[in-house]
Amino acid sequence: MQDQLDRALSEAEAAAGAVRTRAELEALKARLVGPNGSLTAVTKVMGTLSKEERPAAGKLLNAAKARAEALLAGLLSKVEEAELAAALGPEVDPTLPSPDAPAGVLHPLTRTRERVLATFRKLGFVVAEGPEVETEWHCFDALNTPADHPARDMQDTLYLPASFRSADAPRKGEEALLLRTHTSSVQVRTMLGRKPPLRIVAPGRCFRRDAVDATHSANFHQVEGLWVDRSVTLADLRGVLDFFVKETFGPDAETRLRPSFFPFTEPSFEMDIRSPDLGRLSGRWLEILGCGLVDPKVLEACGLDPAEWSGLAFGLGLERIAMLQHGIDDIRHFYANDLRFLRQLA
Ligand code: PHE
After folding, report:
1. Has domain 108-344 been given CATH number 3.30.930.10?
2. Averaged over 269-274, what is the pLDDT?
3. Whose CA is nearest to atom 7 of ligand 1?
4. What pTM did the predictor assign?
C-alpha cells in the first residue's frame, strides 16, 4: 500500500511541473483525488483490509492525503499568480520616470507678468497686491472718480449684492462692494498703508461688464505702477516707461505719449509704441498703456500732502502686451487653454 501511495504521489509531483493553467490543475487534481483518481483507488482498498491492518493503513493514507493537498494548494497559488500577472500585463517598475511625461509650461500670461515685474524690479519697484473684491471708495472715490462717472454705472462695473461681505476689502463706511475694474485701487491701498517714498508694481485680475469679443474680456489682467516721492516728474514717467518698452520690445522700439484723460492722473497720457519687429504690426503706432502724474486730489484722499509729495502712475494690460509680443489676434485664446496655442508660445 505504501508503494502504491508513493507511486501515485510521485507521479502527481512529476506532472505538477508542467501545470500552467487552472484547467491543467483541475485535470491533475482529478487524476489524483477525483472519483477515478489514483489516491481514491487506494482509499477503496481500505475497505478490504482487516481490522488490525486498518489503523496503520489509515495513518499512511492520511499522510499521503496531506501531501497531495499541499501539492495542489501550492499549484493553485502558482496558477493564481500567473493569472494575476497576465491580467496586469508586462511587468511595471513604478519608480521609473514615465517615457512620455511632458513637462508643463507656464501660461503665456504668467510669463508676461513675470517678465514685466522683473523689468520694473530692476528700477527698484517692489510688488504690491490688493483684493479683487474692492470697495467702491477704493476703486472710484479715492481715485477722484465721482459718483456720476460712467465707470460707476451698473452697465460697466460688476457690483456685489448688498449682503456680500469681504474680509479682504475693509470698507470705509457702508459703500458698495464690487469686482475691481482696474488695479488702480492698489495705488490707494498702498498709499494708505505705507509712507512714501513708494515704488510699487501691482499685478492682478480685473473685471468689467464687457461683452466678450476678440479684444475684450470680462476678466483680464493688469499691472499697475506707482512711484511717490518728493518731486517725481514727467521726465521720470518717460524714463521709467521708455526703459520698460525697450526691455520688453527691444532697443529699436520707440515710444510716444499722447494726451488723454483719467480722473486720477493729471496730466494723463496714453503711451504708444512703434517697433520694426512686430510682424504685421511693425511700423505702426500701437497703444500699450495709460499713465500720468498722480492727481493731487488722489494724494489728499490717501492722506498725503500734495505740497510735499508727487507721484507717477501707469496701468498696463498684460493681455495686450502678450498679444503684441506674440502677434495674437484674439484675446480669447488666452482662456481657452487649447494646447496647440499654449505649446506654440512655450
Ligand atoms: N486704470 C487705468 C485703466 O484701467 C489705467 C491707468 C493707471 C491710467 C494708472 C493712469 C494711471 O485704464
Report:
1. yes
2. 98
3. 315
4. 0.72
| 314 ligand 1 Cβ < 6 A | yes
For residues 137 and 39, give the distance between their C-alpha atoms in angstroms, rounded to a whole number: 96
Which residue blocks in 1-131 are alpha helix, DSSP H?
A: 2-16, 22-33, 38-45, 54-88, 108-121
- For residue 24, CA distances in Å to 15, 30, 33, 47, 115 come to 10, 10, 14, 31, 69
**Cβ atoms 276, 253 nearer than 8 A:** no
The grid coordinates of residue 264 equal 486720477
CA 8 to chain centre: 68
Atom 5 of ligand 1: nearest residue by CA position = 315
Contact assessment for residue 151 and residue 141, using Cβ atoms and an 8 Å cutoff: no
Mutate to test the pocket of ligand 1, among 182, 232, 295 (most ligand atoms within 8 A of CB): 182
| pLDDT at 53 (0 to 100) | 86
Q: Roughly how many angstroms between the first and final C-alpha of the chain, as a whole number? A: 82
Ligand 1 contact via 144 beta carbon (within 6 Å): no
Q: What does the domain layout of the chain look like in residue ranges?
A: 2-88, 108-344
Q: How confident is the model over 121-144, as a mean pLDDT?
A: 97
Residue 1's pLDDT is 79
Torsion of CA 202, 205, 211, 215, to 10 degrees: 60
Ligand 1, atom 12: closest residue by C-alpha? 290
Q: Position 28: which residue type?
A: L
Distance 214 CA to ligand 1 centre (A): 21
Q: Quick one: residue 108, left, alpha or beta (phi over 0 = left, psi -120 to 50 = alpha)?
A: alpha
